[in-house]
Design goal:
The chain contains twelve helices and no strands. The protein is mainly alpha-helical.
Amino acid sequence: ILQKLRSMRNEKGIEAAKRFGIVTKYEILGISRTELRKIAKNIGKNTQLALKLWKTDILEAKILATLIANPKEFKKEYAYEWVKDIDNWDLCDQFVLNLLWKTDYAIEVAKEFCNSGKEFTKRVGLVLIAKIAMSKKDIRREKLIEFIPFIEKSLKDKRRYVKKAALWVKKILKKIEIQI
């Protein structure tokens, strides 16, 4: 799989990542998310492979890991380990939108991550609240209202990616008639 990913290296994609502000310590291959989804579809759900891909130093391998990990098998301990490695907004959002929100413990870790002092860990928590509010229609309003203090505090955060995520959550909650 790593060989295949390396063979798909795309210089225009690498330049686009830079333009979109994806700054990371990981190697960027410039593979589109559409192409990664095609690869993931061919692989199918495979949490053990996802765990191995996550350990690489390739951004697209990590994103592929978020696509193939099975949310029902993805243990909470994995979420705590993976969140430590997130150093950019794209990987953060892919982790949440492809995988984390589908876990049984999503609300629980959202609270913990929102309390973090680390920029991208806090962003994971906020993006998770946004995705849960958008997608889990069975979630009780009271659960979402519990997050208002986290969101209010994050709206005052000076870090760009925390504030952007907080504004996103605020907008989504407003749509479902929860005012901040």
